[in-house]
Amino acid sequence: MNQWGERMENTDLAIFGRDRPAPTEPLAASRCFALPDSYRPLLQPWFNRWTLVYGEQPLRLPDDQREALARLLPVLLCGEQSAVVLFHHEARRLSAAARQASYHCFSTIEKDEFQHDLGLQALQRKLPRPQDLPNIRRRAKRFFARLGRVESTAEHFAQISHLDSAVAVIMRALEASEAARDRQLRSLVAQIKRDEARHVFISRSHALQLGIARSDYRSMGQQIRTQVLALLAPFGSAFETLGVDVDRLFGRIRKSRAE
């Protein structure tokens, strides 16, 4: 079991799992995974522009789509919040090992994931609270926490590469959905899609550099895609309400390849 799995086993998700007030005002919402202590990242220009244009605007969606999106966002947020922590710690490890080029690469991804987190939270605050929110969050949290329970950092980043590939497929589907007629939603998911597609390549390269065999990398992809589909299965009707063909979406996730 690698360092992420050991921490989660020994501290009851100590670095991920505490719901506690975040250190800055935009993060006042209860979190699925806690930020590292004294976390003060810089906001990226695209996010500042998105906030300036859409920060005060409501989501222009009918009630049924608002409710559907409100059920999906906690799952997406759990993934983004766990990624912030993962890439934060890996960037610090690489910095300590004097691998500055890799450090800057992973620090940039960490910032990307943090902006995704902030953007999805901004949408969440404009939506109704699902009655089963604690159950949704608990289920998603359990899924992402289990990703750390592998034997090596190489295996973990192989998982992350395949997971990011699935996230990019999801975001592409949301970008093309009926709900994406709302420009606020469409612009955010389009940005996340672009970022996650880039993260796939970087995490894959990192896993291979850390020594994972290509055959193990491919077999891990099949496992992750199966697990992602199981995680998303209860939200099929929510995707359909948003105007996503869920059979096509799940088929694309099943066939996606982080190569």
How do the helices and strands line up, and which of them pair or pack?
Blueprint: H1 3-11, H2 45-54, H3 63-96, H4 100-124, H5 133-146, H6 153-175, H7 183-209, H8 214-232, H9 236-241, H10 246-255
Helix pairs in contact: 3-4, 3-5, 4-7, 6-7, 6-8
In short:
The chain is mainly α.
Written overview of the protein:
The chain is an all-alpha fold. It is 68% helix and 0% strand. The two termini are 25 Å apart. The model is unreliable at 1-29 (pLDDT under 50). It has helices spanning 3-11, 45-54, 63-96, 100-124, 133-146, 153-175, 183-209, 214-232, 236-241, 246-255.
- What is the H/E string? HHHHHHHHHH
Regions with little confidence, pLDDT below 50 for 5+ residues = 1-29
Number of domains: 1
CATH architecture label name = Up-down Bundle
| Mean pLDDT over the full residue set | 86
Feature tags:
259 residues; mainly alpha; Ferritin; 10 helices; disordered N terminus
